[in-house]
Structure formats: structure tokens, C-alpha cells
Design brief:
The complex is a heterodimer of chains A (169) and B (281). In chain A, 33% of the residues lie in helices and 12% in strands. Chain A is of the alpha+beta class and 169 residues long. Chain A has a 5-stranded mixed β-sheet, with helices on both faces. In chain A, helix 2 crosses helix 5. In chain B, strands 4-5-10-6-7 form a 5-stranded antiparallel β-sheet. The termini of chain B are far apart. Chain B has 2 domains: 112 residues, 2-Layer Sandwich (Uridine Diphospho-n-acetylenolpyruvylglucosamine Reductase, domain 3), CATH 3.30.465.10; 107 residues, Enolase-like, domain 1 (2-Layer Sandwich), CATH 3.30.390.50. Chain B is globular and about 60 Å long. The chains are: A alpha+beta (169), B alpha+beta (281). At the A-B interface, strand 4 of A face strand 1, helix 2 and helix 5 of B.
Amino acid sequence: MRLELTLNGKRQVATDVPANTSLLNALRDHFGLPGAKNACEQGECGSCTVFLDGTPVCSCLVAAGQAQGARVGTVEGLADEDGLTLVQQAFVTAGAVQCGFCTPGFLMVVRDLQLRARGRTIINLDDDEVREALAGNLCRCTGYEKVIDAVRAALADPDVPRRSVGASG
Amino acid sequence: MEFITADSWTDALRIKTERPGAAPIAGGTDVMVELNFDLRRPEALLDLSRIRELKDWDVVGGSVQLGAGVSYTRVIEELADRLPALAMAARTVGSPQIRNRGTVAGNLGTASPAGDAHPVLLATGAVVEAESFERGVRKIPVEGFFTGVKRCALEPDELIRAVVIPTAAGPQQFSKVGTRNAMVIAVCSFAIALDLDARTVGTGIGSAGPTPLAARAAERFLAEELDWDALAVSEAAAHRFGRLVAQTAQPIDDVRGTASYRKHALEVLAVRALGWIRGCA
């Protein structure tokens, strides 16, 4: 199957994508983007989260063909030549990254939370809202507290929305 | 395996008639798990996610006609006023990522006894609109839709077009027992919907039987016992209601809980639901 995507803003084509494979496998094996991680393959862990036409989804649960012609944003699209986004930097600073396997998924859902929080006083995002936004992402290292510290720090920074353009697809 | 994209509803129905073995896929949150784990090898996937006609909901004659492609996220954001119990159930589905893709119609197609929407659909008296290319639309009351564990009344050439759910005519509640607040398959779940005009009660039990179940004896009992103005019942009647709900359940012991725990928990959920409803008076 020929699969054409707008991947992190650029038109990309892969050939010979198996018809029964997921968007996740297509990204990793056919588009050379291993940022989205393959862990549970059943939507439990959120490590494979990408933006599909602007919406965060588990790419392991999207058939590759369902993404035909779509805009797909992956973790590789977050940082640019100026360096990490403030959310990414906040994860580093807070110690929210240990083994790092879950981190790409977390970064994508925090990006989504940030976009949805626009137009509100983002500092008012309470812990419940943050925890709900992260509920589909598992981390077995950090115990989540450092992740939530990072999200709180990043979203409280008024520069974040301006800096983090990119991977929302 | 072949991947077939349906561009329109008519297209989808025609393909499903020609290829009854093709597995319909919309949100993919159930179908892809089965493919990823090689539990199922359908001859083809029939992608319904591009069909515009399925992506809308409409209010028709006092009911919401929920298109088969409307996600749980949209049910929560757009229908919490008209379909409060369905929105409550939708909030307990998976995670934000799952709710962005998964649909009520997909829940029905999978027909798991643990499907979160099912108790609400039973309690509200929803109707499944199935359609085939050759025979047209067939309306299946949800109570007759579930025929066994992960089995439903759909014929091989039929697809779910919409689910018709009566707009709330009184207080509704949904609750679910699980080990976390997210990503939980129900240990058991319970929905209740009161119709203040007709003075009737609807219920639904999830994950405590081979299919989702309605607790008809409990419904009749509560309709008699309830003070319909204060929305209150005596404590004794509330507990009797809870026991009648629990007695309807046909749970088994499995990895998520024992049969006796499920019966106990359903009684608790049913009594609590009455307490929450009283708060609506």
C-alpha cells in the first residue's frame, strides 16, 4: 500500500506499507520516525501518541490506511533548530525523564493540553485537569510527580504557547 | 489482508454486501487491538472513518440520532445536556486518546458485556439503526441487540448507521467500578434513567453477565415506590431496589473481580444512584 502523509508539515510518501499495519508501525518502519514508541499495542500506555489531523490519538490503534492523506504530527516535529520547546526543557529540568520511553507520548498530550488551554489563564489549570489529560499515558519510572511538576512549570510559563509551534500537525 | 476505504455510506453498504467478511473499522480502538495481537485476521478492513454522513448527530422527534462516526469526546462536549448518562459513561471510556477515536456504534459492534455505553443505551431505551445495501434500514431495540458475549444481532451484510437515543426526560446516572479513574474495563457498571413524564424507570447493568442487562423487576419496583415529586424513596425501598438490580446480574468470576463482589458492588452502585438522583429534585 502506498501511504502519503503530511508528516510534521512535510509531504512524505512510503511505498509497500502492509495493509494490516498500524500508523505507528508505518511511522517507525516506513517513514523512519522512531519517536512514537511501540509498547502495549492496545492503547493502554499512550507511548505511541501522535497528532492525527490535529487530534492526539494512539497511533497503534489507527490503521495505516486510515491516515491516508492526513496531517500527522510526531514528537520529532516539536523541537526546531532553536532547540527544545519549553515543555521539553521543563521535562529535563524537573527530572520528568528517566528511562525516557514514555516521554514522547507525554510530550504530545502536554502539547495538546497547551493548545486547549489557550485563551484561558493557563496558570489556572488545576492538577485534576492536568492528571486527566495525562491519564492515557503510563510511566513506570517517575511515579508521575515529576512529570506533573514539569507540566505545571511549562504551562505556567507565558512564553510556552508562542514557542511551541510545530507538531500539532 | 486488503484495506478498503469507503468514501460514502452507500459505498460502504455495497462493499459490505459484496465482502461480508470485511471487518468494519471506524475509531479502531477495538479492531486494531485484535489485529495487533493477531487475534483476528479478517480478509479485509473496511474503513468507515471518512464517511461524512456518519459524523453528525441530530435531534429527531425527541431523540438524538447519533451518527456511527461521532467520537466519545464529541458526546462529552456536545451532548452532555441532552444525553447526560451517555456523557457520564463516555467520560469513563479509556483515556483522552481513546475517546478521541472511539465511538458508541463501535462499542455496539464489539458488543462486549463490559462496553461502557451499553448500560446507558439499555436504561434510555435506545434503538440501533442497522442498514444493508439490499434490505435497507432495520431498527433494533438495544435490548434485542446483544445476543451473547461479544455477539450481536447484526447480519454479515449490515453496518450500524446510527444509534437513536431518547433525549433525557429526567435525571440520569452512570457509575462504574474499576481500579483506576482511567483506562479501566468495568468490573461492573450501572446506569439509571428516569422519565418524569411517563413516570418510568430504565436501568442497565454492565460487565455482570454474558450481555449487558436491564433490571426490569427493579425498574417496576422503583416506579411504584418512588415519590416522583421529591425523587425520593425510603431507605428500605432503596436497598430493595439495589438487591433487585444485583439479583438480575449473572456475573462470573474473572480476572477483574469475583461474581459475588460484582453483585455486591452493583447493589451499592444502584443505591448510590438513587441518592444522586434525589439530589436532582
